[in-house]
Q: What sequence folds into this?
């Protein structure tokens, strides 16, 4: 008794229908049927009487705007109400698929890392994934990645959905491809298809405080005591700092798309990154996926001892690509 679909289109189920039976469960045929739609929905085809099996059906066409709809079927002195919903078609903005750490428009994104998809009608709720293994759908929102020329069609694993933004891990299966076709669907409402450039490496720091104008954002990091690094809780010169990044490319012991990274053995980046803090190269102790989390890269570096206290620009270079600068507060 429920239906849904995209505004201005027929419903995803095709028809609504019912069976009329007598008190003994025997189908009643030849009974006149009246269909009454509301909420912008109209009936484009329908049965006027029940057939030999007591069944009658109607084909609804949803209205032009998102709305709750009802269709009432009248037959044999009985009333059955079908309830439904017309939703907007999910629409990804032009250049709306971006690195979820840097948000750089038009730049390639890397398989295995996270992207943010911006648009409209991408979900009917706002919700985050609640499990370590990322789901393929959150409240009926799904993302697909296709490379027709290579015969690749794989789903993305979601971390967050909302009407205007969806965050998803780019499937590892797309490594080595130059682009992919991306689409968001909500239930049976399919959205537009956009072509997204791919590269095996697309490094960027996640930031706890985003950049603003010429002010650097604060890189997401933990100090040697596992405290979050902020402008008031700075990392210490000569000590270890854990930096959390996106897009560092292929790893050893690669987990399946959407699965948490293993603790033993660790998944380490195949290419060795170069990290600079305040223009000085920092010694890298570990570069790979954060254990027990899906798709999050981590680099452990030792902060150079000859830095002055303050917030310094930090960059990472790997696979021939260099990230934009973020800020790292140091004391």
A:
């Amino acid at each position: 008794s429920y239906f849904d679909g995209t505004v201005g289109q027929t419903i995803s189920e095709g028809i609504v229908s019912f069976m009329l039976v007598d008190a003994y469960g025997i189908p009643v045929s030849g009974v006149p049927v009246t269909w009454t739609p509301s909420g912008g929905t109209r009936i484009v085809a329908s049965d006027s009487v029940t057939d030999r099996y007591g069944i009658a059906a109607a084909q609804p066409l949803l209205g032009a705007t998102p709305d709750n709809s009802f269709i009432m079927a009248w037959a044999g002195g009985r009333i059955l109400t079908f309830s439904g919903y017309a939703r907007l078609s999910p629409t990804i903005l032009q250049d709306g698929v971006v690195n979820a750490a840097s948000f750089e428009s038009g730049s390639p994104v890397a398989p295995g890392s996270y992207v943010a998809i911006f648009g409209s009608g991408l979900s009917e709720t706002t919700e985050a994934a609640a499990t370590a293994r990322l789901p393929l759908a959150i409240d009926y929102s799904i993302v697909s990645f296709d490379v027709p020329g290579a015969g690749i069609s794989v789903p993305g694993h979601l971390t967050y959905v909302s009407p205007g933004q969806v965050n998803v891990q780019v499937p590892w299966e797309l490594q080595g491809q130059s682009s992919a076709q991306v689409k968001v669907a909500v239930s049976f409402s399919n959205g537009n298809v956009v072509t997204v450039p791919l590269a095996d490496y697309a490094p960027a720091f996640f930031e706890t405080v985003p950049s603003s104008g010429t002010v650097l954002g604060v890189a997401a990091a933990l100090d040697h005591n596992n405290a979050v690094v902020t402008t008031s809780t700075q990392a210490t010169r000569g000590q270890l700092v854990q930096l959390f990044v996106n897009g560092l490319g292929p790893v050893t012991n690669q987990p399946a798309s959407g699965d948490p990274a293993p603790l033993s053995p660790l998944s380490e980046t195949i290419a060795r990154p170069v990290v600079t803090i305040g223009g000085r190269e920092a010694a890298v102790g570990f570069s790979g996926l954060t254990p027990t989390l899906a798709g999050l890269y981590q680099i452990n570096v030792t902060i150079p001892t000859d830095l002055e206290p303050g917030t310094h620009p930090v960059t990472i270079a790997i696979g021939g690509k260099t990230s934009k600068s973020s800020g790292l507060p140091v004391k």
Observations:
- The two ends are 64 Å apart (CA to CA).
